[in-house]
Design brief:
With 252 residues, the chain is an alpha/beta fold. The chain has a single domain, classed as NAD(P)-binding Rossmann-like Domain (Rossmann fold). It is built from nine helices and ten strands. The strands form three sheets. It has a six-stranded parallel beta sheet with strand order 2-1-3-4-5-8, with helices on both faces. A two-stranded parallel ribbon has the order 6-10. A two-stranded antiparallel sheet has the order 7-9. Strand 3, helix 3 and strand 4 form a beta-alpha-beta unit. Helix 3 packs parallel to helix 4, helix 5 packs across helix 7 and helix 7 packs parallel to helix 9. The longest helix is centred in the first third of the chain and has 15 residues. It is globular, with a radius of gyration of 19 Å. GO terms for molecular function: protein-containing complex binding. InterPro entries: ComplexI_NDUFA9_subunit, NAD(P)-bd_dom, NAD(P)-bd_dom_sf.
Length: 252
């Protein structure tokens, strides 16, 4: 079995990737900013990065930050991986990064292009949004008696553990370039998804569809972030909610 480094290995996706790879018998190194022995801030290009990559065959790059810096982090990671002779770099991206002019999506696309030009074997998997993102969105919006939702926008949430399984499979194989997109089992209106959240949470809220403006909103409304032809996920948003509330005992 090989040595695999997972960046962001304690995060929403990364921890499931780590679990899957270890179950398959690999030596897995978990890299994150605060987790020893590989506590590295990729944005700073810490010297510990070279040590973390020493002897590593494959890197699965799941680390990301809403505060920015992903492009610099990728540059530092790729440069260090080349110095270490890493054979395979795998990256998780988002469906629609080339169609939706949303700032975070532009960053993900820029990182994709860095991987394509990395000079070694690479794989990029794009997935639709995780169930957890919608859960947190609706949780925040439902704190008000009225929940505003973007008008005429749909989503296709996917189970994070299913994405982790697919990403782990790709990481263990030969570099695949752009892998087939991975979408959740259903394309749903935001109104329908919000209603499912409220039902599961036992809350009553008025849902208001709000028309927005801008090129990013128009792209979302046109479904640029969806992959209806790649609806390969199996767990629905309702499945996710049932499990989530069974564990937490209710909304928090």
């Amino acid at each position: 079995m090989t040595t695999i480094l997972v960046t962001g290995g304690t995060g929403t996706l990364g921890r499931h990737v780590v679990t899957r790879l270890r179950a398959d018998g690999h030596e897995v190194r978990v890299l994150s900013r605060h987790t020893a022995p590989y506590a590295v801030d990729l944005r700073e290009g810490d010297t510990g990065l070279d040590s973390a990559l020493d002897g590593t065959h494959t890197v699965v790059h799941c680390a990301t930050s809403a505060r920015g810096g992903d492009e610099q982090a990728a540059r530092n990671l790729i440069a260090a991986a080349r110095r270490a002779g890493v054979a395979h770099l795998a990256y998780i991206s988002i469906v629609g990064v080339d169609r939706v002019p949303f700032p975070y999506y532009r960053t993900k696309l820029a990182v994709e292009r860095q991987f394509e030009d990395c000079g070694t074997g690479w794989t990029v998997l794009r997935a639709t949004q995780f169930h957890d993102l919608l859960y947190r969105l609706f949780q925040g919006l439902s704190k008000s008696p009225v929940m505003p939702l973007p008008a005429r926008v749909k989503d296709q949430p996917v189970e994070v553990r299913e994405v982790a399984q697919r990403l782990a499979e790709l990481a263990q194989g030969a570099p695949a370039g752009r892998a087939d997109d991975m979408g959740g089992p259903e394309v749903r209106t935001m109104h329908s998804l919000a209603r499912s959240y409220l039902d599961a949470a036992g809350r009553r809220r008025a849902l208001v569809k709000v028309p927005l403006r801008g090129s990013a909103y128009e792209a979302f409304r046109a479904g640029g972030h969806l992959a209806p032809d790649r609806a390969v996920g199996t767990r629905t948003f309702e499945d996710y909610l049932a499990e989530r509330f069974a564990v937490t005992g209710g909304p928090r």
